[in-house]
Specification:
It is a single chain. The protein is of the alpha/beta class. The chain has one domain (about 15-225): Rossmann fold (3-Layer(aba) Sandwich). It has helices at about 35-50, 65-70, 80-105, 115-125, 130-135, 150-160, 180-200, 215-230; strands at about 25-30, 55, 105-110, 145-150, 205-210. A five-stranded parallel β-sheet has the order 2-3-1-4-5, with helices on both faces.
Length: about 230
């Protein structure tokens, strides 16, 4: 992994990647894979080690974050509209949160990144080439972790956490099945396949998200400590 920052394509205007001295560490994976829990634990650990840390994630933009949440309540968003809303959300956070933090030397922990946006859209029929062009302004992360959890485990965790299944996280808008349980399994199987394809293309570090929280967190810490030379 190179310490030099770069963009996947043309990047954002007037941004010099050489000025971004911080580290961008991403944790990818589906809903209920444990991402948010491990991001918080990593943030506490890194701050204890003396690092300044920023935690970011999807739908947290002050520009459109609330708009996305409200729009999804009606279950009527078109696929392209949803893609563009999430792209806008990510672009706003990249320009106004992630890049300033990296310029200041922070470690930025991303609770999902463009890879989730791409995986979601591809299983809904979007062109991979179109998505790559749409998101080419994204900064290349220093490390990308992927929490791999089978759909059946995700289903169990979703019921345990929420007591019900979510329309969008079950892929009901993508017509996998009229039955939400069946749709959930088919949707997450399709997502898992896309993540595995991207893992090879983008050099993800794959972690078994079905291990215990302690075991998974230790794997994260060992990999990050090696990269940052933490002893």
């Amino acid at each position: 992994m190179s310490n030099k920052k770069s963009f996947y394509g043309r990047g954002l205007p007037n941004i010099n990647p050489d000025e971004l001295t911080g580290k961008l560490i991403i944790i990818e994976g589906p809903d209920c894979s444990g991402r948010s829990t491990h991001v918080e634990l990593l943030k506490e650990w890194l701050e204890f080690k003396g690092y300044a840390v920023l935690n970011t994630g999807l739908s947290r933009s002050t520009l459109v974050g609330d708009a996305i949440k409200k729009a999804k309540q009606g279950n009527i968003l078109g696929k392209t509209t949803l893609s563009l809303l999430y792209c806008t959300d990510f672009a706003d956070q990249l320009e106004n949160k992630i890049i300033p933090a990296l310029r200041a030397g922070f470690i930025v922990l991303g609770d999902r990144y463009i890879f989730t946006l791409m995986a979601r859209d591809i299983v809904r029929g979007a062109s991979k080439e179109w998505l790559k062009e749409l998101l080419e302004f994204a900064l290349v992360p220093d490390i990308v972790f992927y929490l791999n959890v089978c759909p059946e485990t995700l289903l169990h965790r979703a019921f345990s956490k929420y007591g019900q299944l979510d329309y969008w996280e079950s892929g009901m808008d993508a017509n996998f099945s009229s039955d939400m349980l069946e749709s959930f399994i088919k949707y997450h199987n399709a997502l898992q396949q896309e993540y595995e394809i991207m893992a090879k293309e983008y050099n993800f570090k794959i972690i078994n998200g079905e291990d215990s929280i302690e075991s998974v967190q230790n794997q994260f810490r060992r990999a990050i400590a090696e990269y940052l030379n933490i002893y």
